[in-house]
Write a structure and sequence with these properties.
Layout: E1 4-10, E2 15-18, H1 30-40, E3 45-49, H2 50-56, H3 58-62, H4 70-81, E4 83-87, E5 99-102, H5 107-116, E6 121-124, H6 126-134, E7 140-145, E8 153-155, E9 165-172, E10 178-184
Parallel strand pairs: 1-6, 1-7, 3-4, 3-6, 4-5
Antiparallel strand pairs: 2-8, 7-10, 9-10
Helix pairs in contact: 1-4
């Protein structure tokens, strides 16, 4: 069975975006970006909400651009080559290869996808991740903690959910980012 992993960069106080919706402070440097590439490379499917998909869709236009840095070109290749499922009630069409729209999050369908997938899945964006976490579908949490406090905004994790987790991996980067990988305890 494939795992469903939730990965995001957060502030030290646990937000993926500040109160104004800004997340420019979370842009990875080359070292972190290369690590993220290696982390995402084995995944076969990415699950996105509409907003996260619209941010990530820029990688479709960057795909094949020769003037990108090697690490950015690698990420564009990885993103282009995975299947993408976008959960949205308002999005009319998608602008990327290997992408389909689902009108609502169906926990049973995602569980079936996990059971049948040959490669892991990644959920992107805190809104969709909240639905997956509440449905007890997330197997691993990959948190990149940036050395910044934003004081409020969009939280990495939903309120009102208790999860017992096990630390599986950790890493410090030269720019002050810390990576934590936690697994759900069955």
């Amino acid at each position: 069975m494939a795992k469903l992993n939730y990965s995001a960069t957060t502030s030290l106080d646990g937000y993926v975006a500040d109160a104004d919706g800004n997340f420019d402070w979370s842009a990875p440097d080359e070292e972190v970006h290369a690590f993220v590439n290696d982390l995402l490379r084995p995944a076969g499917t990415h699950l996105y909400g509409r907003r996260m998909y619209q941010v990530m869709a820029a990688w479709e236009t960057l795909y094949g651009q020769p003037d990108l840095s090697p690490v950015m070109r690698d990420f564009a290749d990885i993103w282009h080559d995975v299947d993408k499922v976008v959960y949205s009630t308002t999005l009319e069409s998608v602008a990327s290869a290997r992408t389909r729209i689902e009108r609502e999050f169906d926990a049973g369908a995602v569980a079936a996808l996990k059971a049948s997938a040959g490669r892991d899945l990644v959920v992107g964006g805190p809104g969709l991740a909240t639905a997956a976490i509440r449905a007890n579908l997330v197997d691993e949490f990959h948190q990149f903690i940036a050395p910044v406090v934003v004081g409020g905004g969009t939280p990495f994790l939903p309120e009102g959910v208790r999860l017992d987790l096990e630390l599986l991996d950790e890493r410090r980067f030269g720019n002050g980012v810390v990576y934590l990988r936690y697994g759900s305890i069955p």
